Every structure is written in C-alpha cells, then in structure tokens.
Amino acid sequence: YGYSAGTWLGAWYAGEFPERVDRFVLDGNIDLTSSWYELTSSWPRAVQRKFETDFLPWIAHHDQTYGYGSSAGKAMATWEARRAALATQPLVVGPGCTIRATDFDSTTWATLGYDGVGGFGFLELGQGLSILERFDDATPEERQFVGDFFDCLEQPASFEGIGPAEVGT
Questions:
Q1: How far apart are CA 9 and CA 15, in angstroms?
Q2: pTM of the model
Q3: What is the CB neighbour count within 10 angstroms for residue 168?
C-alpha cells in the first residue's frame, strides 16, 4: 500500500523489479511526470486554498461547537488574531511547553495538508483552536490536548537565548 510519495516509490519499484511485484494499492497518486520541486512548490497554495475554502466554512458551520466565528470571514479573523497574539506573547501551556506563532502555523498547515475535508484532522484542529480561545478556563485535559496537538516540545537548553547569528558558529 502506498499513498502520496509512496505511489512514486511503488511505481518505481514495480518498474525496476517487476518479478517481485504481485499487487500494489497506490492511492493519491502524485504526478510522476514532474520533479519533486515542482510538486512540492504547489503545496502552500493548495493548503491555503483548503484552509480558506474547506476549513474556515466548516468551522463556521460548527460555530455552536467550536465558537470560532459564525462565518468564514469571522473564523479567519479569529485565527489571525490568535496568531498575532502568539507572535507577540507565546502561550505557556506548562513547564517546558510554550506555543509560539510558528507552532500555531505549522500545526494548522500540517493538519490541513494531511487531512480530507471534514475528516478527523478537522475535528482535532477545531478542538485545538477552540481551546486556545478559552485557554484560561480550559480543563487540565484540554490543556494537555493543546500541548500534544500543537507539538509543544521543550526547547533544548543548549538553544535557549541563541539568536540566528549564533547558530552554527
């Protein structure tokens, strides 16, 4: 079974070793006629489009559940405001666990990039965004969910206080 890049690998393997191949399931085939660079250069636009045309209307439709905004425009404004707040003041979730704007971005885009419309990732992302909006009143379980979902990893002590100019020197 192969999906995405696995479709390329499966097709290559079948071409190189046809005697070793019986059956493959290749799902979500990539364009085998273009380069990886060409393929991956379209991802940011695709995820942005998915965010705007699929996710924002979906979370707005479920405003009773998530409280993120009753329209796609309101949901976008809520998302942008949270991102700006995290850029100004990262959220300390717990000891050694801080969510920054970059964590917020990367989790949002990774979730949308690997999830179907309205799939499990939409539910998790909606839950995580909702909890962030009411984090001061969140339960311990909700705080744990946020830390786990937004890949809240402890900053290694050896990197603390090191600016970009000092990295690699």
A1: 10
A2: 0.70
A3: 6
Task: Report d(CA 147, CA 150) in Å as an integer.
Answer: 6
For 71, half-sphere exposure in the C-beta direction (CA atoms, 13 angstrom radius) is 3
Q: What is the pLDDT of residue 110?
A: 87
Task: Give the separation between CA 124 and CA 110, rounded to whole angstroms.
Answer: 12
Distance (Å, whole) CA 88 – CA 55: 25
Round to whole Å and give the CA distance between 119 and 52. Answer: 16
Bridge partners for 34 per DSSP: none
Strand pairing report for 91-94 and 2-3: unpaired
Phi, psi of 26 (to 5 degrees): -115, 115
Mean pLDDT, the chain cut into blocks of 10 residues (169 residues total): 72 89 78 73 84 95 97 98 96 87 91 67 94 95 91 53 46
Query: Are the beta carbons of 23 and 39 closer than 8 angstroms?
Result: no
What token pair was written down for 109?
A: 């885009």
Give the gyration radius of the chain's Cα atoms: 20
Whole-number pLDDT of residue 169: 42
